[in-house]
Amino acid sequence: MNNETLIENEARAEALEQAIADQDLVATADLLTGMGTTEIIEVLERLNTRERAVVYRLLAKDRAIEVFERLDSTLQSEILSGLQDEDVAAVFAELNPDDRVALLDELPASVARRLMLGLSPTQRILTATVLGYPQGSIGRSMSPEFVTAHPAGTVAETLVKVREQLDDAETIYTLPVTDAGRLVGVISLRDLLRAEPDERIGELMSVPESMGAEVDAEAAARHCADLKILALPIVDREDRLVGILTVDDALRILESAESEDAARTGGSEPLRRPYLATPVASIVRSRVVWLLVLALGATLTVQVLDLFEATLEQQVVLTLFIPLLIGTGGNTGNQAATTITRALALGDVRPRDVLQVLAREVRVGVTLGLLLGSLGFVIASAVYAVPIGAVVGLTLLGVCTMAATVGGVMPMLGKAIKADPAVFSNPFITTFVDAAGLILYFLIAKLVLGI
């Protein structure tokens, strides 16, 4: 997309928002007609609940369904609450089974039951299949609508089958090959079109990559992305094909997981919806719990300062370096934690690699401590005195080593006990390093300065 197109899109979006603000429904409808689906979604995500419902009602039926499918499930739920019952049933029936399940999780149980009863028997069975798997598993995010091939079938027969199910299948570019329901191979549409009509599928298929339906959704999505395939077959415990994970769904799962990690690393809960579409109360709730936890943790720092009050009274200059030392320690720990959390998500390291990670982070911490400690020693010695410089330099060496080590190990500990590694990252590490770093600082000062 070139700059001129971007400018035009922004101008249309601004004009649409102005028409909505002016309550000019005619102008709003006209502007919506000339906008693409992605543009409309971006505008909807910026509106409040009432405005979003008004704009959605002005969309043509086909466009409305297309837009609805691509919205977050929380926004879908809000839009449904503003539609008539018959409109709700129509929109719900047009969704793919996996999208329906995500929406059902956001709706009241009574509404969910009513919508399920309104589905055709076939769609009700497909949706119930996805609903039957645990939340957080890939079975909950897979699509049960797919086209299969049989190893004894010919290319011509398979292509006829693909054409017959073209409108119902989630994807046709990768076809699972099954025999008596069990996954035995995969074949791409490209290979089908390249082959002779009378060739057998069993001669053309390749060895399949698959995932169990109860595997964690993020792990399955990561596997699909790593393999760089368009669709990953999902099987049950007996290796029977139950669904497929398409690459677009895999990317959506990974985007959601990374947004969650980023939020928790920063000390808040994920919003799970666009920022401007999130009520202020929800933003407050996502942050206040962590702030209270961190505030309680910060009392450790206060207790340490109180414990070494006599030391500070003898050498008041030591107070000047407290922000430098605890800031450097916190930043060093956060860097290590963020790196290891990311490595865990990518599968680069596993909890059993803890000793290797520990050894590497100790070396990294010592190296950083030597560099920063040497600089701190030179500056503090020049401005104050050599003993003060020695205290600062040695403390930086110790704090960096400790922070890098703790920052590297804590996410792995979280992973080992089945907790979110991001929760064990920056907020708690910062609190721990602040208190431990101050203790180290005052102990070194008492030793070097003899106070």
TrEMBL record:
Gene3D superfamilies: CBS-domain, MgtE N-terminal domain-like, SLC41 divalent cation transporters, integral membrane domain. One of its GO terms (molecular function) is magnesium ion transmembrane transporter activity. This is Magnesium transporter MgtE. Residues 142-204 form the CBS domain. It comes from Paeniglutamicibacter cryotolerans. Belongs to the SLC41A transporter family. Pfam families: CBS (PF00571), MgtE (PF01769), MgtE_N (PF03448). The keyword Metal-binding applies. Keywords: CBS domain, Cell membrane, Magnesium, Membrane, Metal-binding, Transmembrane, Transmembrane helix, Transport. The chain crosses the membrane at residues 362-384, 390-410, 422-444. PANTHER family: MAGNESIUM TRANSPORTER MGTE. It is found in: Cell membrane; Membrane. InterPro entries: CBS_dom (IPR000644), CBS_dom_sf (IPR046342), Mg_transptr_MgtE_intracell_dom (IPR006668), MgtE_N_sf (IPR038076), MgtE_transporter (IPR006669), SLC41_membr_dom (IPR006667), SLC41_membr_dom_sf (IPR036739). One of its GO terms (cellular component) is plasma membrane. The keyword Manganese does not apply. It comes from the Bacteria.
